[in-house]
Amino acid sequence: MGCAGASVFIYNGEGPGRAAWPAEYRGAIVHNRQEKVLELLEKSGPRLHDLLARLTLSEDAVGDLRQALFIRLSSSNGLDKATDPFAYAHRAAINLAFEWRRRQKLKCQSLDEDCLAASSSSPLGMVIRREELEKLLDATSQLSRLARDVVVMHYIEQESYEEISRRLGKDAHYLRSVSAKAMDRLRTLLAGERNRPGGKD
Q1: Measured between alpha carbons, how far is residue 167 from residues 1, 46, 127, 163 in Å?
Q2: Do residue 139 and residue 73 come from a single domain?
Q3: Which of 27, 69, 90, 110 is 20 to 30 Å from 44 by CA-CA measure?
């Protein structure tokens, strides 16, 4: 994952109302965190890129979300406290992707437009699959944050419950229960979508 130009995000420590610490100390803290973020993204960038692409279905959005992820990680002290920096970044990427999806949905509703990006020249099967995946991801965004993370990690990224348990710090059996309830909820949401006027039979 390229990080060219990332230095533009380095905090200079001169904002108003932030005089509690010497500017050099504040700047050093943020700079050290950014170095940690750059190292993390150098190692795990491709996985996070793929995750963002899968959740947004838009390569055009991934570049902006990668920058947003860098900013979010660099500006939060949560990464400093994280026992597993990748797990922390992974959840931040999921949150950013679903925030993007919500914004896109609101934008499309306000414009009363069809927001599917499939071109008219695409094979019909691809259009249908994309439409179904869009609906599945929209439904997933309505789950609780934990349930959403488990569904994404297990069904989209194909992670085992043991690996998810390690990354989230929760019992694997509990996560299986969360997953089962989430799938029941998704079935209900998707069934409701199909039964709406204009929905698929």
Answers
A1: 22, 18, 34, 6
A2: no
A3: 27
Cα 2–Cα 9–Cα 74 angle in degrees, nearest 5: 85
Q: How many residues does the chain have?
A: 201
* 16-53 pLDDT tens trace: 443 444 445 455 566 788 888 999 989 999 999 999 99
Q: For residue 4, is it within any domain?
A: no
Scan for tokens 């420590």, then name that residue: 13
Domain span at residue 111? 23-115
Question: In the prediction, which pLDDT does 92 show?
Answer: 95
Q: Are residues 105 and 155 in the same domain?
A: no
**CB-CB contact of 13 with 20 (8 Å):** no
**37 and 82, same domain (yes or no):** yes
Query: Total structural domains in the chain?
Result: 2
DSSP code of 77?
T
**What's the confidence (pLDDT) of residue 196?**
61
User: Cβ of 189: how many Cβ atoms within 10 Å?
Assistant: 16
Domain termination residue (choose one: 71, 98, 115): 115
Quote the CA–CA distance of 200 and 193 in Å, as a whole number. Answer: 8
* Amino acid in the structure at residue 196: R
Query: Does residue 122 register a pLDDT over 50?
Result: no
Q: Residue 188 falls within a domain, yes or no?
A: yes
Q: What value does the mean pLDDT take over residues 78-97?
A: 92
In angstroms, rounded to a whole number, what is the distance separating the alpha carbons of residues 153 and 158? 6
In a domain, 10, yes or no: no
